[in-house]
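Q: What structure does this chain adopt?
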Amino acid sequence: MSGPVKVDVLVVGSGAAGLSAAVTAAMHGASVMVAEKASVLGGTSAWSGGWLWIPQNPLAREEGIVEDDAAPLAYLQAEMGGLAADARLRTFLRYGPEMVEFFRQNTAVQFLSGSKMPDFHNSHGFATGGRSVTAQPYDASGLGDWLHRLRPPLETISLAGMGIAGGADMAHFFNATRSPRSALYAARRLMRHGWQRLRYGRGRHLVNGNALMARLLRSALDVDVRFQLNAPVVRLLQGPPGVSGAVLRSDGGEIHVEAG
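A:
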């Protein structure tokens, strides 16, 4: 058993929520460790489309999309069958735009606007766009060797491990058999991906959830967040105020992490 590790904040799990919390805490001066049970980082967020539903986000406002505060809440309530919104939903709606702006201004996480992305259902409070953002594509050379610690795209929804982003990127692949321009675009993407797999072991043009997690990982490394992979939580440590840390299982034995 190794000696105790002391940090201000211990984050369990390296998905979008975990790394967002880790980056935010570290940027505000805390020492942070992220414990991940798998051998790669990113969780299921790395397999996702990378979209976030954030009404009244700053990218939408910059495009002139302004809506009443009550409309997004009305949509959520309609989706929940008319149930009253509790404090968590109101907090989410209030601080979501601030979150987007914080990451835009202070980290490697940059977004694309979903100004043409409608809500899923035509419920009361429905909007035809302006409530969603997604991560900008990312050149994985910015991660260096950490690229191989990032979970690759899910094979069943990628093309030989190559993610295809929504919008123009996906449209070119759908039109490749009908448009010479789209066929050339798709061929170039495939050739570049194939060469990168041969040269680096995986593609380096990251999109969707892989781009989001790569940007969060880069941001975490920039503020000295520590990572412990292959380290599932065995049990929580209890202190006078409640949970005070956790015991992790690793190949080298148990690691006691005391979090302040």
